[in-house]
Amino acid sequence: MSSLSRASARVPGRGRVNTRRPVRFTFDGRSFEGFEGDTLASALLANGVHLMGRSFKYHRPRGPISAGSDEPNAVVAVGSGPALQTPNLVATQVEVYDGLTAQSQNRFPCLQFDMGAVNNLASPLIPSGFYYKTFMWPRNFWTKVYEPIIRRSAGLGVAPTEPDPDHYAFQYTFCDVLVAGGGPAGLAAALTAAKAGAEVMLADETAEFGGSLLFDRASRIDGLPASEWVERTVAELKKLPNVRMFTRTTVFNYGPHNMVALNERLTDHLSTPNPATPRERLWQVRAKQVVIASGAIERPLVFEGNDRPGVMLASAAQTYLNRYGVACGRKAVIATADDSAYRVALDLLEAGVKIAAIVDIRPKPDSELFRKAKAAGIKVLVNSTVQRAHGSQRIHSVELAPVLPGGDVGEGKNYSCDLLLMAGGWTPSLHLFSQSKGKVVYNAELDTYLPGESAQAERSTGSCRGVYDLGEVLADGLKAGVAAAKDAGFDGEVDLPLWEVTSDAIGRGGFTGALPRRGKGLTAMAFVDYQNDVTAKDVKLAVREGFRSIEHIKRYTTTGMATDQGKTSNLNALGIASSALGRPKQQIGLTTFRAPYTPVTFGAFSGHERGNLFDPDRRTPIDPWARSKGAVFEDVSLWRRARYFPQPGEDMDAAVARECLAVRKSVGIFDATTLGKIEVVGPDAAEFMNRMYVNGWTKLGVGKCRYGLMCRENGFVYDDGVVGRIAKDRFHVTTTTGGAAGVLTMMEDYLQTEWQDLDVWLTSTSEEWAVIAVQGPKAREVLAPLVDGLDISHATMPHMSVVEGTIGGIPMRLFRVSFSGELGFEVNVPPSRALEVWERIWEAGKPYGMTPYGTETMHVLRAEKGYIIVGQETDGTATPDDAGCGWAVSKLKKDFVGKRSLALPAMQDPDRYQLVGLYTQAPQEVLEEGAQLVASPNEVIPMNKIGHVTSSYHSATLGRSIALAMVSGGRTRMGETLYVPMEDKVIPVTVTSPVFYDAEGARLNV
Amino acid sequence: MLLIRCPYCGERAEVEFSNGGEAHIDRPRDPMSLTDEEWAQYLYMRDNPKGLIAERWRHAHGCNRFFNAIRDTRTDRFVVTYEIGQPRPEVTPEQAAEAAR
C-alpha cells in the first residue's frame, strides 16, 4: 500500500476520533498510525487495509463487513508473548492504543499468501458434512493423521500457553432497572426510569454511549445534531445519583430470575493501564426489571463473492465515515433492499466518495431518500441486483443485473468500484430476549422475528423490537423506562421530556435468503455464515440430504455456530432453508440463541478464583512447625497436611520406615487437627446417637469412648470416628477429615426433618479443637508430667477413655485412643494455644527420641492393624460387615439409619466383597492400590474379577509388604492363593487376616 | 441463577442453597415392619414430574435450615416456600399457570 493511499482514507472534519492524539500500533509486524478513539478496524481501513483475516475453512481473504460486535471476518489476536496474547478478538471492537500489537489468524505463512487457500480451489469437494463423510476410514487414521492436520488448518486463534498475568474482578450487585444497550432507546429508557426514582444501571458494549446516533448525521433532536443530543443526555444521566453507567460493558447472559451477567472491560483500551485495575470485571446483576435496548443488526446480501475484502454492510461504511472519519473506498456500489442505504450513499457522496450505482432489488422503491439520491445525480438501478463481486484481496468491480419476471436474472453489466455496500434490511437483536426464555414471534409486515410475550420481568424497546423511526424509538424508550420503573415499584409522576425529532422517513424494505441468480448457481461462493464458511448451497445441500428442522440444518452446516453467534447470518440461513424446503419462514422458526452474546474471556469467569484463591487452603496451627521441620505436604480435601518428615538424604519410603519404627518402639507425634468434630448436646443426645450410628450409646459411660460407624439409609458405610461421652447429655463426635461437613448435614437433616421430637443441638467444633496425637509405648511417660496433675495411668484412664483437664494451664480434652495400635493419646486444645502445647510436648518427648510423623506413616500404622479408612477400603457399596466391622452394629436397637437396608437379602449374600489381608508371595513386592484380583492366573480376558486391592504398603515393622483388599466371600478364603494380573506379570498373593500386627491388642492395653 | 425465598432469611441467591430432593416422604416409623418392596419404595422411588414438585431445600450457606418449596420443573419458577412440618400448600390454578408461564 502506498503512503498516498494510506493517508487518503481519512476524511478531514469527519468522525469522533481525536486527531490530536495519534497512536502507533502494529498489525502483522507492520507499523501503522491511528487516532485515539479508533478501533483496530477503523485505523487499518484509514490506512487502506481491508484484508484482515483468512476464513476458517477455505482460507479465503477477508476484510471487515461490520463496525461492531456482529463482525464475523476480521478476527485477530491482540498482544504478544506466550501469556499475553488474546486470540479471536474482532478488529471492529478492539480499540487501538500506543504500542498495541495485533496479528491476523488462520494463515500460513502470511496473510497475503496463505498455503491453506488451496482449500478454496478444492471447495467444490468440501461441502457441508464433508468431515463426517470423508474421515471415516481407516478408523485408526482419525487420531494419528486426520485430526492433527484438520486441527492445524482449521480452528481459529492460538491459545496462550502460559498463565495470564492480568487480574480479573467479580462483583455481585442489585438494581431496580437494568438497561442493556446505550443507543437512543436505551438512553431514553434509562433517563425516565431514573427520573421515576429507580436505581438504574445502563450498559453499552462500545466505548461510547449513543449507538446509531454516533453515526447519524441526518437527524436532529431538539434542533441538535444527534451526537450532541447524546452528549447532553449522557451528561444529564451522569448527574443523577441513582444511575450507574458502564461503557465497554457487554450484557452477555440473561439468566433465570432476572440474573443478568455483564462483562466490563477496564484496561484493554489503555496503553499503560494502572496495574491495580483489573483487566475485566464480571458483574452478576439481580435486576428487578430489565429493559433490553440491544438494537438491530444490518443483514448482508448473499451473492457470489460477497465475502471479498471491500464488500461490507452499508451501515458499517456509514459508521466508519461518520464515527471514525474513514472512507472505506473511493468508488462505491451500493446493493440494497432497504431505504436506509440511500442515506449512506448521500453521506458518502458528501465526503467525496463516488457512487457508481445504487442497485435496489425492490421493483418500486419510493421514499424521500430515494428521491434525494436521484436528485443528487446518483445512478439508481431498480428491480436489479448484484450478481458477483470480482477481485481477490480487494474487489475491483461488480456485476449488476436486472431481475426478470419469474425470478430469473437478466444480462449483467460490470461496474468498476473498490467498495460494495450491502443493505439487506435490519435484523432485531433478539439474543438477550431469547436467553430470557421469551418466545420470538414472526412479524409478517417486517418479515422478521420480534420479541413475543415476556417470560421474565423484562421489556424490549427500540429497534430490537422492530421500531426503527428515530422519533418512535425515543418515544418507545421513554415509555419502556417509565413502565420498568413502575413495575419495580416507582409509580410516581414523571416529567417526560418532549424531544422534537427530525429524521429521514424510513420506508419498508429488507431481503432474506440468497439473491436471485442467473443460471443454477451451483458453483457460487455465496456466503451465509462468513465465520464458519457456510455458503447458500451448503444450506440447500443439507435440505437435499433430508434435514428438515432448522436446528439440524444449523448443526449439519454449522451455520450460526461460530463465535459471532450468527448475528449477521441467522435470518439469511432461515430464508434459504425456507425456499429450499418450500415452507414459509414462520413455520420453520429460529434456532436458539445462546449465551454469551459475544465471547467472554476465561479470566473474567474465573475472576479472583485462581492460584491460591481457587480453593481455600486450610492449614492447622501446627503447619508452621511442620514447615520448619522440612515436612512434605499433601492436600487432603481442603486441608494441607504434613505427609512425612524427611531427614537429609531420605526419600519417602525411608522416612516413612523410620517414622513407623519410632512409633512402634518409642513415641511419635502427629497432627490430627483436621479430624472433623461435632458436639452433640441435649437431653436426647444419646437417643439421637442411637438413631444415627449403628452402635449402641445408651450404656456408654461418661468418660468413655467408642468407635462409631455411620451408615446411610441404604445400609452402606458413610463415615466413622471415635466418639467420647463428655457428660450424660454431651458427646464429642469425631468424623473423617473429608466427611465432616457431610456428616453434620446428614445429622441436621434427620434432626430437622424427621426427628423433631428430639431435644438436641448440633455444633461443628472442627475448628474449635486442635488435635495432637501422641502415640507409642512411651506416650504416657511423655504426657504424664505435662497434664497438671491429671492421673493418666492405665488403671484410671484405660484405652478408649476421655477426660477434661488442663495442660500447662490450657484447657484440654484428653482422649486415650489409638489409630496406630500403640498406647496413644489425643490431646485436644484450642487452636490458638495448640502450637504452644505441641512445642511443650515436643520438648518433653526429646529424651524419648520423639519423632514427628505424617499422614503416610499414619496410613501404614493403621493398615498394619487392619483399621479401615472410609473411602479407601469402603467405596459406598460396603456394609459394616463387608468392612469387617460387623461387631460394631448393635443387635439390640429397634432402629437406626441403615438398619432396615442391612436386612435386605442382598446384604446377606455370602459372596459380598469382604475385607481381608493379602501377603504377596514375594515379600518385598508392593501391590498397586486399585489392582484387580482373579482366582486363576490363566484366566482369559475378560477375566472374572473377584476383588481389588484397597491399601498397600511396605511395612517396616514386619519387614515385608502388606495389603488390604475387598474380596468376594473373602473371609472364607483364608490361605487361598489369588492372582493380581498386571500389565507385564501376574502376582500371586495369599489371603490372610486384615490384622497383621498385634492381633490380640496387647499393645493398646498397657 | 435462581432467587429462592428462605422462610427464615428471605430471598437469597441459589448458590446459598442445596437441593434435598422430593419433600413429604416421611421416614417410616417402624422400618423393620416394612416388606422389602415397601422399604425399597421409600428408599429409592421418587417422582420426576414435568410441572409442579414439592421439594426440600437447605439454606446451606445461611441459616442451615431445611425447608420445603413448590417449584415448576419446566420453568424453575417457585410457587411458594414453607417450613418443614407444614402440609403441602394448595396451589391455585392461577398460581400454577403463573409458575408454568
TrEMBL record, chain B:
One of its GO terms (biological process) is tetrahydrofolate metabolic process. GO terms for molecular function: sarcosine oxidase activity. NCBIfam families: soxD (TIGR01374). InterPro entries: SoxD, SoxD_sf. This is Sarcosine oxidase subunit delta. It comes from Acetobacter aceti NBRC 14818. It comes from the Bacteria.
